[in-house]
Every structure is written in C-alpha cells, then in structure tokens.
Task: structure prediction
Amino acid sequence: MQVGMVGLGRMGMNMARRLMRGRHRVVAYNRSPEPVRKISAEGAAGAYSLEELVGNLSAPRTVWIMVPAGKPVDDLIGRLRSLLSRGDVIVEGGNSFYKDDIRRERELRPSGIHYLDAGVSGGIWGLKVGYCLMIGGDRRVYRRLVPLFRTLAPKDGFLHCGPAGAGHFVKMVHNGIEYGMMTAYGEGFAILKGSPYAEGLDFAKVSHLWNQGSVVRSWLLELAEAAFRKDRDLSTIEGYVEDSGEGRWTVQQAIETGVPAPVISLSLFQRFRSRQKDSFSDKLLAALRREFGGHPIKEQKPSLKGRKGKRP
Result:
C-alpha cells in the first residue's frame, strides 16, 4: 500500500521505516526538513509541504499523522481537509483525547473524508518488535487499512476497538494502567534500597530475576534492568516525572463514570509530587505536628535573596 506519514519524530520516523520494510510506499513530511532528507535517503518519497505530500499519493489516499495532541492535530487536519478528497483517510496516531476524535470524525463526515484514531504503544522499540495498535472508527475503513496495521504490529498486535474515539480511549486506559505499574515498581525498588540488604543487592539482577517466571514479570522490568545496568543507583537522574495527559484523562474518566481507580489516581498525583522540591503541604504537616504535639521541626535556612548589600 501507499501511505503519507506526517510527523517524523521518535515514533513517526521508526513507523515510516517499519512500513518501508514491509514494502509499503511511504511519502514522508515533517515541518522541519532534516528528518525528511534523512528518511528520503532510506527510500521514502520526501515531501517538503503538505501539498507535495498529498500530490504524491494516489486516491484514495491515506495520511497517517504523528504530531503532538491538541491544537497541532486540529490545525493539521484543518489544512489537510482542504487538500484531501472524498474517500481519503486520516489516521490520527498520536495520543489524542478520545472526545476530540469523536468531534473530528463528525466534522470531517460532510466532506467524505474518513477518520480513524489509532492508539500506538511500543515507544522507541517499536521498529524492532512492532507497535501495539488500538484503532477506532468505521470498520469498513479499518479493514481497508489492515495491510498497514499488520506491518506495523507484531502478531495479534492490532485491534478494531469500536467507533470513533474507541482506539484512543483504550490507549488512554492502557497508559493509566502503565502509570500504576511504574509507580508500584518504583515503590518496590525504593523499599529494597532502604532495606538492610541494599548494599548487597544488584537491582539489575533483581529486575532480571523477576522476569524469569515471576508473576510481576513485564517489559517494564526489562527496561528497569537496562536502566540499572547503566546507573546502579540512578544517581545521574533527577526524580522529576512529567505526564503526557493520558493519566489525567483516565482519572477524569473514572470520576465521570463513578469508577473507583485509587491506584491510577495516586500514581498520577505521585508524578505531580515529584516536581515539588519543598512541598508546601509538607510544611503545614510539620507545623501542625509541632502545634498539637510539640514535635520538633527542621528549620529552613533563611534565604539571602533580596538581602544584597545588607550586613549578615
């Protein structure tokens, strides 16, 4: 098949490569030209504008977009809408909020342009092992693109999850679960590190051990093993953890539907907490313990900020 790939970041570039290895014709576009030159040297047809990308595809066209969620996706779809024709397909492969997918599919319907949402998991390892694909949208359009999905995914690694929004909804919950799993591993290794046995434990070997038939084995533990082999105590890494939106949306969905999700919720709040060097809430906890029980506190050293020129 032929496919236009828009967005050649860490995921988009490797997805284009995997599609080319599967003998699909890839027309590739990126806002900055260097990635286009790079993938062109590997066999893709490079495009330096959306107009050129669409012009290099035969109808019915398939354009797969891999750009940051939110306004960048909406802006890109707005531009593509004026270039594509009835029967063409846009596949949104980023991490969009599923309600945005429902809106976009509805907005594109009068023009006859189809819209599929594809939740993609696999990270930078997807080129080698394949991408897990969770796909929403019209089942007839999905069937038309199965050759692309089959190339991108490992065996049994893609699924039509339902109408528009269903793919990214399933991916959203997937990422919420991922938050909880990562937090549990983090807490477990923190307990090991704080134990009397920490000095004699090799955390890379523990990670490897737990992947040998243990009920907690997973790919995340393989990645933990790799991280510990690079840096035994993770001393070069600051404990600051970002979140890319899916965890928040999962918790929001749980609230909207009244589904208890304490582990996922706490794992999200743990990420927020990681960004606070001197938590105000902890300051109040310490102050309250002093007030009601006379418990000692650790006094913070006074800041010299704003005291320039004053005597100590």
About this structure: Residues 236 and 275 are 17 Å apart (CA to CA). Strands lie at 2-6, 25-29, 45-47, 62-65, 89-92, 114-121, 132-136, 158-162.
